[in-house]
Amino acid sequence: xxxxxxxxxxxxxxxxxxxxxxxxxxxxxxxxxxxxxxxxxxxxxxxxxxxxxxxxxxxxxxxxxxxxxxxxxxxxxxxxxxxxxxxxxxxxxxxxxxxxxxxxxxxxxxxxxxxxxxxxxxxxxxxxxxxxxxxxxxxxxxxxxxxxxxxxxxxxxxxxxxxxxxxxxxxxxxxxxxxxxxxxxxxxxxxxxxxxxxxxxxxxxxxxxxxxxxxxxxxxxxxxxxxxxxxxxxxxxxxxxxxxxxxxxxxxxxxxxxxxxxxxxxxxxxxxxxxxxxxxxxxxxxxxxxxxxxxxxxxxxxxxxxxxxxxxxxxxxxxxxxxxxxxxxxxxxxxxxxxxxxxxxxxxxxxxxxxxxxxxxxxxxx
Length: 366
Ligand SMILES: C[S@@+](CC[C@H](N)C(=O)[O-])C[C@H]1O[C@@H](n2cnc3c(N)ncnc32)[C@H](O)[C@@H]1O
Known about the structure:
It is a single chain. The chain is of the alpha/beta class. The chain has 2 domains: 6-44; 65-364, Rossmann fold (3-Layer(aba) Sandwich). The chain has helices spanning 6-25, 30-44, 89-100, 124-127, 135-153, 169-180, 258-269, 281-291, 307-319, 335-351, and strands at residues 65-69, 75-76, 80-86, 104-109, 154-164, 185-191, 213-220, 231-237, 240-246, 297-300, 324-329, 355-364. The strands form 2 sheets. Strands 1, 2, 3, 4, 5, 6, 7, 10, 11 and 12 form a 10-stranded mixed beta sheet that branches. Helix 5 packs parallel to helix 6 (169-180), helix 8 (281-291) packs across helix 9 and helix 9 runs parallel beside helix 10 (335-351). The protein is globular. The protein starts with 5 loop residues before the first helix and ends with a strand. Bound molecules: S-adenosylmethionine.
């Protein structure tokens, strides 16, 4: 009942009162009046929280599910063994729960934003149909199922980062407060445009307000027990941008933009539009730097173009770390094989990262 408005409550109460009067007039049995009185009390009890309907995901099979390596796609370049897993992330997360519960230090995710734009190279339209009255509850239900498992996978001092924009920030914040506790959530702002990086930016049309930022929700398993490392931020010294260590601030300036993320893909694939919604590697790198130890396990179950894998390997190279990553993405439009995998392969070779990679797919035995 918590999602009904004051006006709606008043209307319901007035209808129930009318029914009560009618029942009294016709001397109806007392028990009918008692039922109505109970309903009134229920409606008038103040509640606060997020109410949404649970949506089942028919296509998630639970039995005889396994991960199988495609040996021909293995990359061996020394160092740690990372994993790229192709498939539906809920089914894979359920599998990971068996061996990684309480073991993941950092989770970075950039889920579909529920924009209803089915031109996106991913399954956004499946959980966001503009004509669908349940647009928000479908998305929340989709997210809640995955976040519940994410919560279990985190270590006691683990951190989950979630990229999100204005479409669902309000709902997601409430959901995460409910799951992690209000005191365990912070909200960062990521300016997604910046003239310093945006040489190739194509202006999009907008109505009244041009959105120049997104958000990163930071969900701590236990914030009071978690200490962030300093991150590297560009600072202007004698008219020159120099990276220096600083405490993380709530506005993540100077770490790349939507346009610069596309430039990164342009360099790799010769086509900056090959994937619509990449995040800049540097943004993810600093988020991981803040929350990880040198041997942390980092998970991204909406891997997209693989920026999280790239960021982890770049950080390892810089500070001689041994972090390992697990990335998950479905293979809709061949994203996992032709973009995520190819990017990781390309950067391992180009940057001479001492890293290994296994490519796994989910199999169903029934
Ligand atoms: C916004 S993109 C992530 C972009 C990524 N952060 C990057 O920098 O490239 C979301 C990704 O999640 C994937 N995805 C959406 N729903 C999924 C699901 N249920 N299981 C696995 N992957 C999914 C999409 O294919 C898409 O590549």
